[in-house]
Amino acid sequence: MPKIPKNTICLWFDKDAEAAARFYAETFPDTMVGAVHRAPSDFPSGKKGDVLTVEFTVAGIPCIGLNGGSTFKQSEAFSFQIATDDQQETDRYWNAIVGNGGQESVCGWCKDKWGVSWQITPRTLTEAMATGGEEAKRAFDAMMEMTKIDVAAIDAARRG
């Protein structure tokens, strides 16, 4: 039996935790679906034998998807932040999420079709913010005008 991680992110889904985990595994590197556990008896939002929890990782981070029903909804208070190296990688993740029933937001944020929020963040933006000063301000101001992050525009803003 595999060792259970000390800390695991638990994401509440209405009923599609397994579909979400499989989509994440198809989309992001170092992401996989592990064990799928079925309910041993009926529960408020399901029946005995329904998928109850799904163990998976997202970019190496251990997670559990819980099919808990419609009581609780996802919100932007939790998001996965995925660091990207270039525009091609940024576009690939953004387009996968938005193109699979998700929706665009602002400043590099989007939501997948299950309501989970994602920040698709090019490393150049993170580096600019860490640099501070006028470079960070220029990059931040440029980001504030964006939906999906434009790497070339951030790089131009960093240079002034």
Describe the structure.
The chain has two domains: 64 residues, Roll (2,3-Dihydroxybiphenyl 1,2-Dioxygenase, domain 1), CATH 3.10.180.10; 87 residues, Roll (2,3-Dihydroxybiphenyl 1,2-Dioxygenase, domain 1). The chain has a four-stranded mixed β-sheet with strand order 1-4-3-2, with helices on one face. It is elongated. The protein is built from five helices and eight strands, in the order βαββββαβββααα. The model has no long low-confidence stretch (mean pLDDT 96).
- End-to-end separation: 55 Å
Architecture per CATH nomenclature, i.e. the level-2 architecture of the largest domain: Roll
The first-level CATH class of the largest domain is given as Alpha Beta
Overall shape: elongated
How many strands in all?
A: 8
Mean pLDDT: 96
The class by helix and strand makeup works out as alpha/beta
* Spatial order of strands in the largest sheet: 1-4-3-2
Number of helices: 5
CATH-defined fold name of the largest domain = 2,3-Dihydroxybiphenyl 1,2-Dioxygenase, domain 1
Order of helices and strands: EHEEEEHEEEHHH
